[in-house]
Design brief:
Length: about 100
């Protein structure tokens, strides 16, 4: 059973917006993107509730913003670790954030 979940944000949003434009050019890109983003975020929360991992590592601001304080309060058995996203050669800082959390 998975007892560990990593949620990342992504820089793939620009590519996604281009693909959305190809599919639905008449609907505003931003609206379609926000709709899809909401579906993904809510789906992630449902998956986490089902898996009930002991630890969730949230890499970067996008992932960290997926789970509100209220969401976290509704999942009291789960530990949430915020870490810097490893993009742009930040792997060492990411590891430090995670290690700092695990040592507490």
């Amino acid at each position: 059973m998975n007892r560990f979940w990593i949620q990342t944000g992504g820089k793939g949003t620009d590519e996604l917006k281009k693909e959305i434009e190809k599919i639905k050019p008449t609907k505003p890109k931003f609206k379609l993107f926000k709709d899809l983003e909401n579906i993904c975020e809510e789906g992630t929360k449902k998956i986490v509730k089902i898996l009930n991992p002991q630890l969730i590592i949230l890499l970067g601001n996008y992932a960290q913003n997926t789970f509100s304080s209220s969401d976290k309060q509704n999942m009291p058995d789960i530990n949430f670790c915020n870490a810097i996203h490893p993009a742009y050669n930040k792997e060492e800082e990411t590891a430090e954030d995670i290690n700092r959390f695990l040592r507490r």
